[in-house]
């Protein structure tokens, strides 16, 4: 067994898990900057969400509001009778 090479001893870093390794601590200004960024992102998200809700409510309440110039259902037959009477008469042509 004297002829086999021995492996090098493991390093201290490889022995511990990533959770147990030392992490760098953030300075108070870095923590404050992170908090400000998180608040700004949250405010933008809430604003976009509220604008989307207002647009959906507006579109839902104004659905189908348009004006038609067609006569009501009951007057349709009278209109057709008047058109048929005018076709049967003699058409006059006027030259200016």
TrEMBL record:
TM regions (residue ranges): 35-60
Keyword list, A-Z: Cell membrane, Cytoplasmic vesicle, Membrane, Transmembrane, Transmembrane helix
Location, primary (coarse class): membrane
Membrane topology annotation: Single-pass type III membrane protein
Subcellular localization, as worded in the UniProt entry: Cell membrane; Cytoplasmic vesicle membrane
InterPro entries reported for this sequence: SMAGP
Top-rank taxon: Eukaryota
UniProt GO cellular component terms: cytoplasmic vesicle membrane; plasma membrane
Keyword Membrane assigned: yes
Family: Belongs to the SMAGP family.
Protein name, per record: Small cell adhesion glycoprotein isoform X1
Organism expressing this protein natively: Phascolarctos cinereus (Koala)
Gene name per UniProt: SMAGP
């Amino acid at each position: 067994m004297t002829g086999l090479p021995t492996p090098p001893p493991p390093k201290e870093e490889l022995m511990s898990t990533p959770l147990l390794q030392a992490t760098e601590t953030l300075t108070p200004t870095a923590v404050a900057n992170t908090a400000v960024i998180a608040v700004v992102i949250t405010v933008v998200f809430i604003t976009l969400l509220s604008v989307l809700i207002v647009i959906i409510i507006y579109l839902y309440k104004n659905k189908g509001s348009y004006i038609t110039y067609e006569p009501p259902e009951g007057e349709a037959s009278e209109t057709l009778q008047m058109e048929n009477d005018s076709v049967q008469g003699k058409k006059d042509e006027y030259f200016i």
